[in-house]
Structure formats: C-alpha cells, structure tokens
Design goal:
The complex is a heterotrimer of chains A (about 80), B (about 600) and C (about 120). With about 80 residues, chain A is mainly alpha-helical. Chain A is built from three helices and no strands. The longest helix of chain A is centred in the last third of the chain and has 36 residues. In chain A, about 40% of the residues are buried. With about 600 residues, chain B is mostly helical. The chains are: A mainly alpha (about 80), B mainly alpha (about 600), C mainly alpha (about 120). Chains B and C meet through helix 5, helix 6, helix 9 and helix 24 of B and helix 1, helix 2 and helix 4 of C.
C-alpha cells in the first residue's frame, strides 16, 4: 500500500460523495463521468491497466451518455404531457 | 458412453443449452411465427427438465462433478469452472425445469402480444436458476445470481404499458442489485482471506484459517445478498411489488423456485464452506431470528390483502420465514423437511398463481371483492384453486404437509420447541387467506370488506393479457394447472420420498464428502445412517389440525364483521399496529433502501454478538 | 484496512443516495456508484494478495519481481462486473423512462401505485 494508492482511494471516496449528493441528474451525469476517470486512475495505481481502460470506456463515457439520453427522453416526455393539457 | 460420462456431459449441458437456444431465438426470432417460438421454447425447457430428471437419478448413487474444459485445480489453486450435482442441487434444478415448462405451456394461450423476447428471457432465466443450483464456485454462483436477476427484472416489466409493472420492476431491480453488490463485496473479502473462489478449496482454506472478523463479515455479506433474493424481512419489499405486477406465468417461477434458491445459496455456502469454521450457535440464532420475523410479517400482511397475487406473494414470504427457521436450525431432518416442503410449495403455489391468471384474463381483475361470486361457473378452476389452498395449509397427501411435519420434527430436535406452533399458525394464516379468497370468488359467500381490507391495494388495476375476456379454459392452460396440482399430491404419496429426502439432506450437509468429491474425485457418498421419514398418524393429525385452523381463519375472514361487538372492539385495538405494518410497504424505493441498510446492520450485530 | 473502509463507504454512500433520492434517474446513478465500491474492493484485494499470475509462472523469479504482480483473477472479475453494471444501469434507466411515460413523474414520493 503506497501513498499514491491512498491518495487515489481518498479521491475516489470524495468523488463518490459528490456524485451521490448532486441532486440534479443532468449535472450528476457530468460528475459521474469525472468519477469514472478517478476510478480509472485508481485502477492504474492498482496495476490493473486493462480494467482501467474498460472503466474509461464504460464508466466514464458510455454510462454517463446513457444517463444523459434517459434525462433527455424523460424531459421530452414530460414536456409533451404538459402541452397536451 | 458410460452412465457416468453421460451424467458429466449433461451437467453443463442443462445450463448451456437454454442460453444457446435463447440466443438463437433472439437472432432468428423475427422470422419465426409465434407457434414455432412457443414450441421451441417449451421443447427446450422440457428437454432440460428431462435431463435434470436423469441427473437426479444418477445423483442418487454418487455426487456428479464436471469441470468445464477439464480445468482441474493445480497446486491448490483453481481457475476452472466446476458444476457439482447432489440430490438437493439437482432437485432444485429439476423443480425449475418443470415449473418453466408449465409456465411456458401456460403462456402459449395466456398472452396475445408477446414477442420472442419473452421466450428468450424465460430461457435465460431458466439457465440462471439451473446454473445457480449446480455451481460449485462462489463467483459463478454470483454470475448466475445476476443472470437470473437481470432476466427476472426484464420479465417483471414485460407488460411495459402497465404503470405498476414498470414501477415494481424498478424496485425489484434496484433492491436485488444492491443485494448482489453486497454479496460481491463478501466474495471479495473471502477471496482476500483465502485466495479461493471454488467452494471446496474455500472450505479447506477456511478450516485451516479459522474464524476471524474478515471471514465472518465475508460470510454475512454473501449471505445477505442471497437473503435479499430469499425475501427475508426486512429485505422482502421487492417481492410483493414484483409479484403483484409481474405476468402470472413469471410469478410461478419467482415464488416457486427463485426465492427458495436464495435460501439454497445460503445453506450451500454454509454447509460446504463454513460449517467447519463458524460457530453453529451464532448461525442458528441469526437465521432463526430472521425466520421468525419473516414468518410473522408475511402471515399478517397476507391476511390483510385483497389483491390476490399480492396475497400469494406475502404467503410466499411467510413460507420463506418457515424455511429459514427450518434450514437455520441446522438439523438434517429439518433441512430434509424444507426440501420436501419447497417441492410441495412450488406445486401448490404455482397452481394458485395460474388460477389467478385465469381469473385475470376472464374478468380483468384479481381483486377479492370485485370478483366476489363471479367464479361460480368456473368449476374446474374453482375446484383446483380450493384444493391447492387446502394443500397450502398442509392437507395430506400434499407434499406440503409431509414437508411441514418433517421440518417440525427437525426443529424440535434442534431445541426449538415452539417451532411446530409457529408453523401451524403460519400455515393456518396463509392457507386460510387463500381459502377465504377462494370461497368469496368461487362460492360467492362472505360479507363485504372491513375497514382494514378496504384500504389495501386494489386488484382492479392489473392489466389483462388478452384483448378480450377468455370464457373457456384452453387445454394448454388447463393441463399445467391440473398436472401441477396432481404432482403436488403424488410427490407427497411417493413411497420412500421422505426417506430419500432425509438421506439427501444428510449428504447436502456433508462438508467432507463434497470437498473430497470435487478435489479428489471420490464421488461416492459413503455410508450414511438409514433415515426414516414419512407420513405417520401423528403427522396426519398435525396436518389436519393446521387445515382446520386454516378453515377457521377463512371463516373469520368471510364473516369477521358479523362477530359480536365486544370482540370486534378488542380486535380493533390491533388496528394501529396493522396499519403501521401496512404503511411500511410503501412502494417507495428510498424506504426500501433504508430498510436494507437497517437489515444489514441488524444481521452484522446478530452475527457478532457473543452467543 | 483503509481500502476496505473506502469500499464499504462507497457502497454505503450509494445506498444513502438511493434512500434520500427525489429522482429515479438519480437513484439509478447512485446504484452505479454503490457498485463501484465492489470494483475498489476487488482490485485492492488483488493488489494486496500479490499472487503470481499463472501465465508468469515460468518467468525467471527475480527478487521482488513476483510481489509486484497482481492477481489476474480479480481483474477478470472486475471486468465482468463493469459490464454487468452497464447492463443493469441501462436497463433500469429504460424502466425509469417508462415510469416517466406512464406515471408522468420520476419522483419516488409521487409514485403511489404499490402501497399496502
């Protein structure tokens, strides 16, 4: 266990707290992406470069993208409902 | 090919075949018509069930062990995948296969607007159930746990246009995923402690290491995840939501086998890997406390329901509580009783769900009061429903009664003298609730809803699965209905079934035998003391007592409002407590997550307290 | 000890996030955060164990060389886990979209269909 890993762990923990306590989903998607990169950095420090790579692709890019798409879809659905009324 | 080689080839095949067929269906589905898809799915499922049957007879002689691709462990480390079949594991797989075949046959005419996705998901679900029962290492247990989870969430939301269905599926998905992550954390801790994932190697390493905090917390975490699937209180909230909204054939699998497999996972993990390490008294206390709370909450909530499927869901929770007590007593006879009980419960509970589906498609509701008297002319469904209700209460010769008597004997031997009383009350409450609904719907008797019933979730919201009401019962729905009911009775009458179950439970609990079979290849069971368990006069009397009590509960439910005013006033004092218990089941995902946290804390305290 | 605390705390934070969430999309993201606790745990376990990867067993064992290798088994587990996470997250988000469509809200406090 070295300093680098300890620092990375602390950063990840802080990142998780920020994601969880960001109430607005659209902002949360951005924070989640940053959190994904923090996790990937931790994985590099833990000598798991292949996992870090897939984490960057999936955790920092694809999942936040899906979250953004879901938010868009929900917003447009609710806007359409409001127009109907 | 010898009998042995065949069994070892079949063991992975029953897991892989449904996955392959599911993928083929998904790939080619657009070009196939609905009957072809139905036939392919039913045939696959029936083939798996038949293979499970062959495996079960082979597992009666010795343990079946199959290393995938021949990756056996070397130098005490293993990265290979191993499937292990003993009678309990293969038996669970067989129950899954039979229920799946019945559910798929029933779905043929039950659904109008389903596509190939439904069949593919059902087959993936079957693969998850089977793989979990047969898996010999911890990580694959997790993988199959997730596979059955993801398939189950998707199946719950098959009726995507139903507002309650998507809501229930989301609650189900979030809570079960959290459970799976807690399990995975535990797996990580156990791996940190021992470096093993294979159950047999893990068992060896743990025995050498002894219990320390890491090992205890690891076990508790893995068990918690499985208990979420087993719907132990306070992790049970997803179950009644999911059952109330999932299509009826899917409920059959949820209640009949998926929930029980959660408990099976805990028992397998304890007996194979931890029985030589952890203090038996602590484990017993943990599971018995959880079991009692689960049984009580399940029974009370079951009595308060008017939504038929939700009522059946709470009945399943109450039964899980009983199973938890019986398995947690760590007595082999009680474990054997649980195995018989699970088989019997799977049969009658499935029949009840299928009847609920028939009512839904005919009348567009599963509400007890809306349906009052409507089922008078549905004679076959009515008779089957009432018989299954009696079976649920423990009526001989249904296997439920045999299992209950054996479990009662076992828990008494383990020192839980109050066990039979609780079991009787739970059987009376859950059986009585079902009989009450049956009498109201099919005989048309009984008074209107009391104050407490009136406030319950109504069953009128449920979307029917056909565009037009179905008046005649199609053959493909009638056969599963009657066949499962008959199976529940026949299994209870099979000569020597109780003895075999007692033998199988002893083998299931034998740690040394399992480890030797997987690691050294000595698959024979070795001599075990002759066990005798079966119907006795005393057992029949106990069963009839619980049936009588159930009839009383049903009568009270039907005519409770006609009781003298003084008695009603006394009963009314319980109302705030009942109301609170009901309002806890809020359908609110945040509440459920908080309860999960509370439950994890409680379990850790129970596991850490000195005995 | 520290990595276990961090991993547990991340899972805990995720559950807390779901418990006080006012938006289902937010709850699903919190679930993904909860799962990331398992990656942290698994990978630090693999790092601490420092087992020799099976593929390197024939490599010349220099002093201290084996200790710097990490356990490949947990890395494989974590990779599986990441893929599972993405699948579950996207499925649950799809359900959240359907809930928005059918109930016209994604606030758990306003979803009343499954009470009692």
């Amino acid at each position: 266990m070295n300093i680098l890993i300890t620092v990375a762990l602390t950063l990840v923990l802080a990142g998780a707290a920020v994601v969880v306590f960001t109430p607005v989903p659209s902002r949360q998607a951005v924070v989640l992406s940053v959190y994904g990169i923090l996790l990937a950095a931790l994985f590099m420090a833990l000598q798991a470069p292949d996992v870090a790579l897939s984490q960057v692709a999936v955790g920092a890019a694809v999942v936040p993208l899906i979250v953004m798409l879901a938010i868009r879809k929900i917003d447009s659905l609710r806007a359409a409902r409001r127009r109907q009324r | 090919m010898t009998h042995d080689q065949m069994a070892n080839a079949l063991l992975p095949a029953v897991v892989v075949a449904p996955i392959v067929v599911a993928c083929l269906l998904l790939a080619l589905g657009r070009r196939l018509d609905r009957p072809t898809i139905d036939v392919v799915a039913i045939a696959t499922s029936a083939a798996v069930a038949t293979a499970d049957g062959v495996l079960l007879s082979a597992a009666g002689n010795h343990r079946l062990v199959a290393w995938l691709g021949g990756w056996r462990p070397q130098h005490g480390a293993s990265v290979g995948i191993v499937f292990v079949g003993d009678q309990v594991g293969v038996g669970a797989a067989l129950v899954a296969g039979v229920l799946m075949t019945c559910a798929l046959a029933y779905s043929w005419r039950y659904f109008e607007n389903i596509h190939v996705n439904f069949h593919a998901l059902m087959l993936l679900f079957l693969a998850g159930l089977t793989g979990f029962s047969l898996s010999g290492d911890l990580f694959n247990m997790f993988v199959f746990f997730e596979l059955m989870g993801v398939a189950a969430y998707a199946l719950t939301a098959v009726k995507v246009e139903d507002p309650t269905a998507v809501h229930g599926a989301l609650n189900f998905g979030v809570i079960n995923s959290l459970g799976a992550y807690i399990s995975l954390m535990g797996i990580g801790m156990l791996y940190a402690a021992t470096g093993q994932l294979n159950l047999a190697l893990l068992s060896r390493a743990l025995t050498a290491r002894g219990p320390d905090v890491l090992v205890v917390v690891g076990f508790v975490a893995v068990a918690t995840g499985f208990l979420v699937k087993a719907a132990a209180v306070p992790f049970h909230f997803w179950l009644d939501d999911a059952h109330a909204v999932a299509p009826t054939p899917v409920c059959v699998l949820f209640s009949g086998i998926m929930v029980e497999l959660g408990l099976y996972g805990v028992a397998r993990l304890y007996w194979v890997a931890f029985s030589g390490t952890l203090e038996a008294g602590t484990i017993q206390r943990l599971f018995v406390v959880l079991g009692v709370v689960t049984a009580v909450v399940g029974s009370v909530m079951c009595l308060l329901q008017r939504h038929l499927k939700r009522l059946l869901a709470f009945s399943t929770i109450a039964h899980t509580g009983m199973f938890l007590i019986a398995v947690g007593s760590l007595n082999p006879v009680a474990t054997a009783g649980t195995a018989v009980y699970v088989v019997g419960h799977a049969a009658v509970k499935s029949v009840l769900f299928l009847c609920a589906g028939v009512l839904l498609n005919r009348f567009g509701s599963v509400d007890e009061f809306t349906l009052q008297g409507k089922g008078r002319d549905a004679r076959l469904t009515g008779i089957v429903f009432m018989l299954a209700g009696l079976g649920l209460a423990g009526m001989p010769p249904f296997a439920v009664g045999l299992g209950k008597v054996m479990a009662e004997e076992g828990v008494v031997r383990a020192g839980l003298w109050w066990g039979p009383v609780l079991f009787l009350l739970v059987a009376a409450a859950t059986g009585g609730a079902v009989l009450r609904v049956g009498a109201r719907v099919f005989l048309g008797i009984g008074r209107g809803p009391g104050a407490e019933e009136a406030g319950a979730m109504s069953g009128d919201e449920e979307k029917r699965e056909l565009a037009t009401g179905m008046t005649r019962l199609p053959v493909t729905m009638g056969i599963p209905l009657t066949a499962l009911l008959a199976a529940g009775a026949i299994v209870g009458l099979l000569p020597g079934f109780g003895d075999q179950a007692a033998l199988a439970a002893g083998r299931f609990a034998g740690r040394a035998g399992y480890v030797a079979a997987v690691l050294d290849g000595t698959t024979s069971y070795g001599a075990s003391p002759a066990a005798s368990a079966g119907w006795s006069v005393e057992g029949i009397v106990l069963c009839l007592a619980s049936v009588g009590a159930a009839a009383l509960v049903a009568l009270l439910g039907l005519y409770g409002t006609a009781l003298p005013r003084q008695i009603l006033a006394v009963l009314r004092t319980a109302r705030p407590a009942l109301h609170m218990m009901r309002s806890v089941h809020s359908g609110h995902i945040g509440d459920y997550a908080a309860w999960l946290l509370f439950g994890v804390g409680g379990i850790i305290v129970l596991a850490m307290l000195p005995p | 000890m520290y990595p276990y605390v961090v991993a547990g705390a991340i899972l805990f934070l995720g559950v807390i996030g779901i418990a006080r969430s006012r938006n289902l999309v937010h709850a699903v993201v919190c679930l993904a955060v909860a799962q990331s606790g398992t990656y942290v745990l698994l990978l630090t376990v693999g790092y601490q164990r420092g087992a020799t990867a099976p593929i390197f067993q024939s490599a010349p064992e220099k002093a201290g060389y084996a200790a710097t290798l990490v356990d490949p088994v947990v890395q494989a587990l974590t990779l599986t886990d990441i893929v599972v996470s993405a699948t579950v997250t996207s499925m649950l988000l799809a359900l959240a979209v359907q809930i928005a469509k059918r109930h016209d809200t994604v606030d758990p406090d306003e979803l009343r269909s499954l009470r009692g």
